Amino acid sequence: MCGSIAFMLRASPQDLSLWNQQLGHVPDGVWQRTDLETLVLAGNRLTQVSERIGSLRKLRMLDLGHNQLATVPAALGDLEGLTDFLYLNDNRLTSLPDSMSRLTKLRYLNISGNRLSSLPEAVCSMAGLIELRASDNQLTSIPHSIERLSHFRELHLRNNKLESLPESIGKLHELRHIDLRGNPLSALPSSIAALPKLGKIDLRWVDTLEPPEWLPELEERGCIVYR
Questions:
Q1: Phi, psi at residue 136, to the nearest 5°?
Q2: Are strands 61-63 and 38-40 parallel, antiparallel or unpaired?
Q3: Which member of 13, 37, 52, 65 has the lowest number of beta carbons within 10 Å of its beta carbon?
Q4: Average predicted confidence (pLDDT) for the chain
């Protein structure tokens, strides 16, 4: 192990950043750091992550973004202490393991810049989510079960292949911000108009949508509509 990596493995008792080291693999010493609360492995050309990651039960934040991951280990579901952030953005993911449904305390999830064609059901079981970023994928649908995310405040779905959204999105009563830019939308559910705290809906670069008759009602309420 090179000296700089060895130093970083020892440097902080609870936080470890190996950001942009282009390592190609995760050093074995990382999996022995069961005291870690923050782990950054972004920008390392990773193609796989060991199931041993499940031993890091104290993690509150994990960054696996900007790698080359086609899958993530089922052991991510063992990290039930994840509360702050989970970054999986800018990889090659086509799905997420069902085990991730156990991450019910997680508040922020970024799965943007992958190859997801549908929003994984595991995400809709993450009851604590406040913000989801799923932009720049290939999403064609959002499951009705998204209604379970009752703490949701921000939903970012820019540059996907969505033609519609489920009516159940109207049950997300804490929702403040919806980003739908660059989707081939043909319709929006009228239930959006009843969202009591919605402050911003972004419909720019959507050329396929006839503006719903309830959009002016939203604007009169103070909601900013970008179109």
A1: 55, 45
A2: parallel
A3: 13
A4: 94
